[in-house]
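Example 3.
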Amino acid sequence: MASAELQWLDGGITAVPGILAGGIVAGIKPSGKKDLALIYSSTPARAAAVFTSNQVKGAPVLVSSEHVRGGQAQAIVASSGCSNVCTGEQGVADAREMTRIVGDLLRIPANHVLVAATGVIGVPLPMNRIRAALPKLAQSLSPQGGRAAAEAIMTTDTHPKEAAVRIEVGGRPVTIGGIAKGVAMLEPHLATMLCFVASDATIARGALAPVLKRAVDRSFNRVTVDSDQSTSDTVVIIANGLAENTPLETGSRGIRQFAAGVEAVTTKLARMLVKDGEGATKLVAVAVRGAANGKDALHAARAVANSPLVKAAINGQDPNWGRIMVAIGKSQAKVDQAKVAIAFDDEPLVTRGMQKEGVRLERIREIMGLPEYQITIDLGLGRGEDRVWTCDLSEEYVRLNSKYTT
Amino acid sequence: MASAELQWLDGGITAVPGILAGGIVAGIKPSGKKDLALIYSSTPARAAAVFTSNQVKGAPVLVSSEHVRGGQAQAIVASSGCSNVCTGEQGVADAREMTRIVGDLLRIPANHVLVAATGVIGVPLPMNRIRAALPKLAQSLSPQGGRAAAEAIMTTDTHPKEAAVRIEVGGRPVTIGGIAKGVAMLEPHLATMLCFVASDATIARGALAPVLKRAVDRSFNRVTVDSDQSTSDTVVIIANGLAENTPLETGSRGIRQFAAGVEAVTTKLARMLVKDGEGATKLVAVAVRGAANGKDALHAARAVANSPLVKAAINGQDPNWGRIMVAIGKSQAKVDQAKVAIAFDDEPLVTRGMQKEGVRLERIREIMGLPEYQITIDLGLGRGEDRVWTCDLSEEYVRLNSKYTT
């Protein structure tokens, strides 16, 4: 990623030319907070999406999968407080009706409207409230409405997540902006992740979906272990072409520049999700190298990043490397314990599977006191490498684990 | 399992004729509690063992695997407080020395002594203390010492676990007794599980290992998801032949009767481990039927039993069935959400993937108030079925999850 060409902007999805957004209180959430969001591109846009791989899928996922198949979308309507999952045929009818009403209000075809939802499972949407609120939502659309939309998709998030970047693509400025809502800490893959990205780039037919897939794989799929597993996870990208660049084709230099920008935005949003994990105070990169292959590196990194005992040790700033050994040993990655080396930032802690002689534990504890650092695990077997991000576990959870060193 | 033929006895491993045991304070644990256990059969015994499948293995596991290969053992020495894992060649030498000293003290070959340990990883055993304590430990052996041995292997366990049963095998009484130590709740597979079982049955060469493997698979592997993953997990069975029955051959009616007895003991001990999970107040069986095959049934049952959000709902007595749907949907089992039915004991809650019309939620909440109950999930796809046991999550952990209904 050529970061020299990236210019971070304030704001999120409405930093993109031609993108309007809004977020209002429809009365879905008992708390009375914003719970209905709308994103609208003033011109038709290319669209691509990635959905949950959970076999139980929410009605909005079913309807949006169908609508995005044509590769075009101009609006995204999203609700929070009720996920419209396990609601049978009525749930699908409700999701369809939302796209139809939004289409009518914006004078676009219903199948150019995508729909998403997050919240309680098994409860029907309060459609009367939503029907009443949608006209008000359409009226709220504005070029400054990105933050309100980001707020209206929140559930356990403590703050809205926005990111926007300007890049050069073939000499022309292109903007990419997005919003996201997040993950609880304890079981990241059970909290719904929603992310909506927009750009003014002109993208050739068929070129947008691979860009999104790769960006999601390298961002959200590197922070949430067993990612895309909630019943409602949805990532959407729309590109409306207002930048008037030459259409970006798959395999071109331009699409690679654009992909780097998308990945920068999704990675920034993904890291925000980790940082906003319940009670999280640290953002830790778990980097594995020397694995037999790349897949093994990812397995090992995920096993460590997802270990509650490792995360508890990160919280307690306790260099309890035995927990890291246990995690990699139980992973699917090939491990020879006598070849494992572990370092925190640049400070070595373990060599040949044992605590390094003359280890500077005080220095390790200092590093563990930082808000961000990296744990590097060298398996000493090959050239495979990968990296995932994780956070620590909050004190309440730790209370159960930190008393006893396993 | 013909339970009519099972007679539960008081006590544990020393309920078996010819089995002596003892447990003392060697000074390994900082707490000053018992931390060194010895089990001894007054006559040579057949032996079999099942060890952790973690690729990182403790030195005692390496030495015991070697010693049990001959199929004979007469003593088991086990320490708690220090696991002797990730301790390199010195760790293996220490484990070997323990078997040699115990062999000398009991006048049996060192390779008829098995060794096990649980506790902190990466720290060498305090061998001076252990050398000093072993003669005292050998002197403490007694036919009443089973409880002391059960205490001496505890780590986070709140009480010792013992079980013993008398069965008839070919018309002769046979006794089977065991002790075990347990699992923390939050990440069961990261706490070491040790279980030692003894019997006075006479077993033919090669017939004991399959009995143990099956009993472990149907007991410990049904309570600890991703079981046998700690670096030190060890289950040993010895059978000394003092019952003077006709040697039990693989495939015989007698070995099936014996296997049922062993499974009864290991299942009782396994359920004790679940009940003693940190802060656990409930023992819940998760039964899956109607799966495409047996493997799918086990995948689905484990996914539910291991879901922190399901376990939090069990603690809060909250019929949050959406979390069960999410768990089975993300499992490797084939799921068609429109065919799923869920019941708590005999009370139906979900049919065709949705909340049953006229559901009696008050009755469900009553069942969830019981100390033990069963969640039955019918996938409606085939004839595969399986069952695992789980416990609830303690209040501190729940505080983070129970506020928000996913």
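Confidence is low (pLDDT under 50) at residues 397-406 of chain A. Chain A touches chain B through 56 residues (CB under 8 Å).
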